Amino acid sequence: MPKPWQEWTQPHKNAIFPLYLLFTIAWGLEMVTHLEELCFWLFLVNSGSVKQDWFRSLYFKTWIGGSLIAVAYMPLVTIFTRSDPQKCEAFTFLAGSLGSLSLTLWFLPILWTFPSFLENLKRNAVDVRTIVRLTTFHELNCLRVFFRLIFVLPLLVLAVDGIRPHQHVNENMFWTEFLTSIAAVGCVTSSAITLVIFFPRSVESELQSRNATRERGSQSRHVRRDSEPSDRDTSASPYPQKRPASAMYSNSDAHSPMAHEYPPLDSEVKSPGLEAPIMGPKASFSPNRRAASGVVIQGTVGLTERALHAHDERMSTVHPFVHNFTSPIDLMDGAQQTLWYVKRQYGPRIV
């Protein structure tokens, strides 16, 4: 049996209210994040126009108002019931479990309409990788809603029994420990799934990074072998020869380790006789070729994958948030590639 709080020392009694106040603030902030995600997906699923602004929508205003209520009412419940620690504990868990349960139940309409939402995206020719990411999100979200129910329902049972004059569940040590343990498992598991949803693993990026690392290693070994002095170099001039200015950017740069580390952008088109690549239309060009038999093979002009994705996004009736749904890790990779291009074009002095 745990020691009753009436027999605690005075410093421990004084720590009850501050700790519960911090606990309610943390719970309120958790409801703020859940409400933001709920409002965002409700906005995205129900958005009827591609030009609809998230910051001017009713869902965004609902999130702002609900966040202020969640941050305010949770600590107020603890403050008004601080005279009796057991009563404070019961009403604190009652307020938190009711708020989290209402948010969890509001996720059920999203789970119900998400399959039809995915079918609509397929009919609008949305990128396949975006469809895969959204499908993975839907599957993980179903598991997360299930574990959130496991998290809030046992706490709700304990809270309702705690505010009653005759307590039955809280007086039984087995059911108290069992329900508390089940709620802890649901809280930890749902939080872990949330991290997986917010920061999904990008297998494609990992494979590209691994292959680029191997190629850099092989290129560096190849450069070291080529730079080793030979017998014919003993009579060479001690002064190093300068590289001609016209070779600042030649075809040999494509085989340098930097080229393997950051591949050229799709929008780069190299022009003959220029020292640096120029920006051209995002298209892949294949010139006319003459075969050995004398037959001329006509060239082709086709859009790159990036340009085709941008064209599909402009022509689609789906909200742009859907096309841009990606991992924050992928956004950092895109920013790093853009920074590398600016450095190569204009030099490091502007960065």
List keywords for this structure.
351 residues, 6 strands, mainly alpha, two-stranded antiparallel ribbon, two-stranded antiparallel sheet
Describe what this molecule looks like in 3D:
The protein has 351 residues and is mainly α. The chain has a domain at 9-203. The chain has eleven helices and six strands. A two-stranded antiparallel sheet has the order 1-2. A two-stranded antiparallel sheet has the order 3-6. Strands 4-5 form a two-stranded antiparallel sheet. β1 (268-269) and β2 (278-279) form a beta hairpin. The longest helix is centred in the first third of the chain and has 39 residues, at 85-123. The chain is elongated, with a radius of gyration of 31 Å. Residues 239-283 and 327-335 have low confidence and may be disordered.
Summarize the structure.
The protein has 351 residues and is mainly alpha-helical. It has 11 helices and 6 strands.
Question: How do the strands line up in the largest sheet?
Answer: 1-2
The beta-strand count equals 6
Structural class: mainly alpha
Q: Radius of gyration over alpha carbons?
A: 31 Å
What oligomeric state is this? single chain
Number of helices: 11
SSE succession: HHHHHHHHEEEEEEHHH
Q: Separation of termini?
A: 65 Å
